[in-house]
Design brief:
Largest sheet: 7 strands, mixed
Order of helices and strands: HEEEHHEEHEEEHEHE
CATH class of the largest domain: Alpha Beta
InterPro entries: Acyl_CoA_acyltransferase (IPR016181)
Number of helices: 6
Strand content: 25-35%
CATH architecture of the largest domain: 3-Layer(aba) Sandwich
Protein name: N-acetyltransferase
Distance between the termini: 25 Å
Length: about 220
């Protein structure tokens, strides 16, 4: 069964967004003990095991308040870990990709990061760097890249080959730190469109069903 956040993301990929009225919608937690705060324009979605009343007491709103540090700390709990704030980008696959699979890169930090947050991780790459494709937040298809060397300008060509690994027309998402301007420019150049922002959380130290002392995530 898909998570109720997935249709929201797929609608956004089609350019269909909810009314920008400041509403915060509270949804069930994500698989694997993860939670998140997703912000679109004028609307926020919080996937959490916390009761609705406890979320409301933290005073989020759909106009940026769901990304406020105090809200995220309250959501995570005293022993939880808050991931980085990422811009959510989406594009369409182009199909016909031939970038080689790389089963030898399971120990790479980028791959370990993906394995900690996503399911069905596939790794591809060549001398330019590596690509991961996986079922990410709420089950969406998610792509990430890491170039082997900075300053060579390999990012756009590697990203283009990564999009070719996705069936033509299928939406694929990426989470990019706004501060990583070089990466953000490469994604925008290849046709990715910003649709929102997100923070992934692994809660810990909370009372109730979500406060099981889970180990921190890497963001």
């Amino acid at each position: 069964m898909s998570h109720p956040l997935l249709p929201v993301l797929l609608d956004a990929a089609d350019g269909v967004f909810p009314e920008a009225d400041g509403t915060v919608e509270i949804l069930p937690p994500l698989p694997g003990g993860l939670e998140c705060s997703l912000a679109l324009t004028g609307r926020a979605y919080v996937a959490t095991a916390l009761p609705d009343a406890e979320v409301a007491a933290l005073a989020p709103d759909g106009f940026g308040g769901s990304m406020a540090p105090d809200f995220l700390r309250g959501l995570a709990g005293p022993g939880g870990e808050i991931g980085v704030l990422d811009a959510v980008l989406v594009a369409r696959g182009t199909g016909g990709g031939t970038l080689p699979a790389r089963g030898d890169l399971a120990g790479h930090p980028r791959v370990r990061h993906a394995l900690g947050l996503r399911a069905g991780v596939r790794v591809h790459g060549d001398e330019r760097g590596l690509v991961t494709l996986a079922a990410g937040l709420a089950g969406r298809l998610e792509l990430s890249i890491e170039t082997a060397a900075t300053g060579r300008g390999d990012g756009p060509s590697l990203l283009a080959d990564a999009l070719a690994l996705v069936p033509a027309g299928e939406p694929v998402f990426a989470a990019v730190s706004p501060g990583n301007a070089r990466s953000l420019r490469a994604f925008l150049r290849l046709g990715f469109t910003p649709v929102g922002g997100e923070v992934i959380i692994r809660p810990g130290g909370r009372r109730g069903p979500a406060g099981n002392g889970a180990a921190p995530c890497s963001g």
